[in-house]
Automatic annotation (TrEMBL):
It catalyses: a (3S)-3-hydroxyacyl-CoA + NAD(+) = a 3-oxoacyl-CoA + NADH + H(+). Gene3D superfamilies: 1.10.1040.50, 2-enoyl-CoA Hydratase, Chain A, domain 1 (3.90.226.10), NAD(P)-binding Rossmann-like Domain (3.40.50.720). Residues 288-465 form the 3-hydroxyacyl-CoA dehydrogenase NAD binding domain. It comes from Parasulfitobacter algicola. Keywords: Fatty acid metabolism, Isomerase, Lipid degradation, Lipid metabolism, Lyase, Multifunctional enzyme, NAD, Oxidoreductase, Peroxisome. PROSITE patterns: ENOYL_COA_HYDRATASE (PS00166). Pathway: Lipid metabolism; fatty acid beta-oxidation. This is Enoyl-CoA hydratase/isomerase family protein. SUPFAM superfamilies: 6-phosphogluconate dehydrogenase C-terminal domain-like, ClpP/crotonase, NAD(P)-binding Rossmann-fold domains.
Length: 691
C-alpha cells in the first residue's frame, strides 16, 4: 500500500493518506504527500488532502522521536504545501492532532465533518508544535485562543474550531465527498491559494504572565511555558524567522528528559493491556454488575459502573446500610451532573432503572459479574465468597477489591476458583484511572479478559498483577513508606518529607496521602503483619501513637496534619521527638535531595523485586501503576523509566550507601544487581517482553 493514494477526479487531485491506524505523518507519508502534490501541480487545478480509515492525521509519528530526522521533515513539507500554486484543501474527520493539524493549517482551506476534533497536544508529550503550529495558529485565532489550545494540549470540537476560524466549513458526509465539493466551490469562485504565512502577525499580549502561569501549572514541566515563548515570536517576528525560532525551541524540548518520560508513558499506557495469553480469548458478556458492600469503595465502584452504562445491584448488610449506600451513590452521581459529565435526565434514568440496592444476596443472582468490597478481613471475605458461590449464576465473574489479601485463598472458599479474580480499584473509584487486575492461580483466561474488557468500558487503565501482599502498587507503597518513616525517625519531619517529594513531582506527599486514606488502614495492616515481622525491621511507632489518640487523618480532622486547611501540627513533631528519645536516636538533618534519593531508591528496589517475582509483567507495568494510582509525575515516565534515566548503577550505588546504616532494609534487589552487571536497563526488559 502506498502511503498516499493519488486520484484525479475531473480537475481535482485527491491525496488520501493511508498509514493505519491513525495516519501518523511518518517519513513515508511526508515523502508521498509531496510527490502527490507535485503530480497534482502538473495535472490538476486544486488538491484535497484527506485521511483514509478512521481519522485524518493524529500527528507526527511518535516512533520517529529521538531518531535522526529524515527529509522531508514535517515543517518543510508543510511549507511546501502552503507554497503550492494550487489551492490546497484539507478535508478532516476523526482527529487532526499535532502535526496533523499543522498539516491542515498549511493547506489553504479547511473543511471538516461535524464530529471532528482538532488540537495541538504536543505539550502532553513534553514537546510543542514543531511544524508551524505556533506561528500559523495564532495568525488565524489570535494569540490568546492559540495559547489556550497549545498550552493545555486539549483538543477542541469542530464547532469551536469553526468559531475560531481554524475551520472554514463544517459539512455532513465523508471527507472525500466534502473535500471534493469544497474544492469545486473554490474553483467555481475563482479562489486561489490563501497561505496563512502571508496573513498579518497577531496582536501581542502579556506573554510574561502566560509564561509564568504555564510554569506554575507545569509543576516542573517546561513544555507549555516554552510554547508560550514560541507563540510570542509569532507576534514579534516575520513568519519565517518565527518558524526558525519555533524549530530551535522544539529541538530543545525534543532533547529533554521530560519528553523521554512522557513518550514512555504514552506507549506504556497502551502496552499494559496487551497480554499475549489473552490473544484470541473472548471476554464474558457483562450487562449487570453486583457490588457487595457499599462503603467508600463499593459506592465508588457502583457509581463508575453506572456512569459507564451497566446495570448495578448493590448489596449491603442490612436495609439501613443499603439505603445509606444508595444515597452515597446518588450524591456521587450528583457530582457528575455538577461537573457536566452526566445530564440530569440520565441521572434520573440511571437511579430509577439501572440501580438497585438490597440487603439479601439473592438480589445478585442475575449479575454477570460480582465485585466484593466489604471490610478488609479474610474471614469476612471468605464468608462472602462462600455465600456468593451459592447464589451467583453459573459463569458469573466473582471479583474481590481487596487491597492486600490473598486472592488464591479467597478463591478457595468457592467451588469455582476459575471464576475468581482480583479487581483492585483505587479511591475514589469513579475518578481514579487505575485498575489492578489480579490474576490468581486458577483464574480462567476469559475471566482475565473480562477484567480488561471491563476496564475499557469504565475508561480505566488496567494493569495485570500477580498475587502477593499488596500486589504491584501497595507492595511498593509499603516499602517506600518504610523508607520515609525511617527518615522521620532519624530526624526529618513528615512535613519536610512531603514537601521534598511534591517538589520532586509527586501529586501528594506520603504523609498527606496517609491522612487522606485514613491512618487506621495502615494501623490495621501493621497489626496484621506484626506476628511475622522480621526482628531486624525498624519499627517506628509514631503512626500507632497518632491512631491511639484517635487521629485517623482527614476524616477525624487530625492526622499528621490538622484539617480542613492541612496545617502542620507541633504536637505531631513532639510525638516523633519523644519516640526518637525513647529509641536513643540523635536526630540528624536531611537535605531534600537525600529524601528524594532514598524515597526513589526504595521504590525502584522493591519494584525490581516485584518484576523479578513476576507480580508485574514488565517494568513498564510498574510505571503505569505508579503513574495512574499513586500520583507519580507522568513527565518522569514512572519509577523504572526514572531509574533508567538516572543510570541503574547510580541507583544501586545509592542503595549500597544507604545500606551502611541499615543493611536489612537496603538489600539490593537481585534483578537490579544483575542489570547493572550486564549493563542493561529496565527498558531492555520491556522490549524483550514486547509483543
Ligand atoms: N504516532 C505513532 N503512533 C501513534 C500515534 C502517533 N502520533 N498516535 C497513536 N498511535 C498509535 C498508538 O500507539 C496505538 O498503537 C494506535 O496508534 C492507536 O492509538 C511536529 C511533534 C489519535 C486520539 O499526541 O492521542 O505531531 O498500541 O490506542 O484511543 O508538532 O492515539 O495499537 O500499537 O491511542 O483511538 C501529536 C497521540 C504528536 C496524538 C487515538 N499527536 N495519539 O486514540 O487509539 S507530536 C498526538 C492520540 C507532533 C508536530 C509534533 C490517540 C488518538 P497500538 P490509541 P485511540
Ligand atoms: P468501608 O468500611 O468503607 O466499606 C465496607 C462496607 O462493606 C461497609 O459499608 C459494610 O457495611 C459492608 N459490609 C461488610 N460486610 C458485609 C457483608 N457481609 N455483606 C455486605 N456488605 C458488607 O471499606 P472500604 O474502604 O470501602 O474498603 C472495602 C474493600 O476495598 C476493602 O477490602 C479494602 O481493602 C478495599 N480497598 C479500599 C481502598 C480505600 O482506599 N478505602 C482502596 C482500594 C481497595
Amino acid at each position: 500500500m502506498t502511503a498516499v493514494r493519488y486520484e484525479l477526479i475531473d480537475n481535482i487531485a485527491l491525496l488520501t493518506i493511508q498509514n493505519p491506524p491513525v495516519n501518523a505523518a511518518s517519513h513515508a507519508v511526508r515523502a508521498a504527500l509531496l510527490n502527490g502534490l507535485e503530480k497534482a501541480e502538473r495535472e490538476a487545478k486544486a488538491a484535497v488532502i484527506l485521511g483514509d480509515g478512521r481519522t485524518f492525521v493524529a500527528g507526527a509519528d511518535i516512533n520517529e522521536f529521538g531518531k535522526p530526522p529524515m527529509a522531508p521533515i514535517l515543517p518543510d513539507a508543510c511549507n511546501r504545501i502552503e507554497a503550492s500554486s494550487l489551492p490546497v484543501i484539507a478535508a478532516l474527520h476523526g482527529t487532526a492532532l499535532g502535526g496533523g493539524l499543522e498539516l491542515a493549517l498549511s493547506a489553504h482551506y479547511r473543511v471538516a465533518v461535524p464530529d471532528t476534533k482538532v488540537g495541538l497536544p504536543e505539550v502532553t508529550l513534553g514537546i510543542m508544535p514543531g511544524a508551524g503550529g505556533t506561528q500559523r495558529l495564532p495568525r488565524l485565532t489570535g494569540a490568546e485562543a492559540a495559547l489556550k489550545i497549545i498550552t493545555t494540549g486539549r483538543p477542541i470540537s469542530a464547532d469551536e474550531a469553526l468559531k475560531l476560524s481554524i475551520l472554514d466549513k463544517i459539512e455532513n458526509g465523508n471527507p472525500r465527498e466534502i473535500g471534493l465539493q469544497y474544492a469545486q466551490a473554490i474553483l467555481n469562485d475563482g479562489k486561489g491559494p490563501r497561505p496563512i504565512s502571508a496573513m498579518p502577525s497577531p496582536t501581542t499580549i502579556d506573554f510574561d504572565s502566560w509564561h509564568a502561569a504555564a510554569l506554575a501549572k507545569g509543576k516542573g514541566q517546561i513544555a507549555a511555558a516554552t510554547a508560550v515563548r514560541a507563540v510570542q515570536t509569532a507576534c514579534e517576528l516575520p513568519f519565517f524567522d518565527g518558524l526558525k525560532r519555533e524549530r530551535e525551541l522544539f529541538s530543545n524540548l525534543m532533547a529533554s528528559p521530560q519528553r523521554q518520560g512522557l513518550i514512555h508513558a504514552f506507549f506504556a499506557e497502551r502496552a499494559v493491556s496487551k497480554l499475549p495469553e489473552l490473544e484470541g480469548v473472548a471476554s464474558r458478556d457483562i450487562k449487570q454488575i453486583g457490588v457487595i458492600g457499599g462503603g467508600t469503595m463499593g459506592a465508588g465502584i457502583a457509581t463508575a459502573s453506572l456512569l459507564s452504562g451497566f446495570q448495578v445491584v448493590l448489596v449491603e448488610r442490612d436495609e439501613n446500610a443499603a439505603q445509606k449506600a444508595r444515597s452515597t451513590v446518588e450524591k456521587m452521581l450528583d457530582g457528575a451532573v455538577q461537573r457536566g459529565k452526566l445530564s440530569p435526565e440520565t441521572h434520573a434514568k440511571i437511579t430509577q432503572d439501572a440501580f438497585t440496592t438490597a440487603s439479601d444476596y439473592t438480589a445478585i443472582s442475575t449479575a454477570d459479574m460480582i465485585i466484593e468490597a466489604v471490610f478488609e478481613n479474610m474471614g469476612v471475605k471468605r464468608d462472602v465468597f462462600a455465600a456468593l458461590d451459592k447464589t451467583a449464576k453459573p459463569g458469573a465473574v466473582l471479583a474481590s477489591n481487596t487491597s492486600y489479601l490473598d486472592i488464591n485463598e479467597i478463591a478457595s472458599s468457592t467451588k469455582r476458583p476459575k471464576d475468581v479474580i482480583g479487581l483492585h480499584f483505587f479511591s475514589p473509584a469513579h475518578v481514579m484511572k487505575l485498575l489492578e487486575i489480579v490474576v490468581a492461580d486458577a483464574t480462567a483466561p476469559d475471566v482475565t479478559a473480562t477484567g480488561f474488557a471491563l476496564a475499557k468500558r469504565l475508561r480505566k487503565v488496567a494493569v495485570r498483577a500477580g498475587v502477593c501482599d499488596g500486589f504491584i502498587g501497595n507492595r511498593i507503597l509499603a516499602h517506600y513508606r518504610m523508607a520515609v518513616d525511617n527518615m522521620v525517625l532519624d530526624g526529618a519531619s513528615p512535613y519536610q518529607v512531603d514537601r521534598a517529594l511534591t517538589d520532586f513531582g509527586m501529586a501528594m506527599g506520603p504523609y498527606a496521602v496517609s491522612d487522606l486514606a485514613g491512618l487506621d488502614i495502615g494501623w490495621a495492616t501493621r497489626k496484621r503483619k506484626a506476628p511475622n515481622r522480621d526482628p531486624r525491621e525498624r519499627v517506628p511507632s509514631f503512626a500507632d501513637r497518632l491512631c491511639e489518640l484517635g487521629r485517623f487523618g482527614r476524616k477525624t480532622g487530625r492526622g499528621y496534619y490538622i484539617y480542613p486547611n492541612q496545617k502542620e501540627d507541633p504536637e505531631v513533631l513532639q510525638i516523633i521527638s519523644e519516640e526518637r528519645a525513647d529509641q536513643g536516636i540523635t536526630p540528624r538533618d536531611f537535605t531534600d535531595d537525600e529524601i528524594q534519593r532514598r524515597f526513589m531508591a526504595a521504590m525502584v528496589n522493591e519494584a525490581a523485586r516485584v518484576v523479578e517475582d513476576g507480580i508485574a509483567r514488565r517494568p513498564l507495568d510498574v510505571d503505569v501503576t505508579m503513574l495512574f494510582g499513586y500520583g507519580f509525575p507522568r513527565w518522569r515516565g514512572g519509577p523504572m523509566k526514572w531509574a533508567d534515566m538516572q543510570g541503574l548503577d547510580t541507583v544501586l550505588h545509592n542503595i549500597h550507601t544507604f545500606a551502611q546504616d541499615d543493611d536489612w532494609f537496603w538489600q539490593p534487589a537481585p534483578l537490579l544487581e544483575k542489570l547493572v552487571t550486564q549493563g542493561r536497563t529496565f527498558d531492555d526488559l520491556n522490549k524483550k517482553a514486547a509483543l
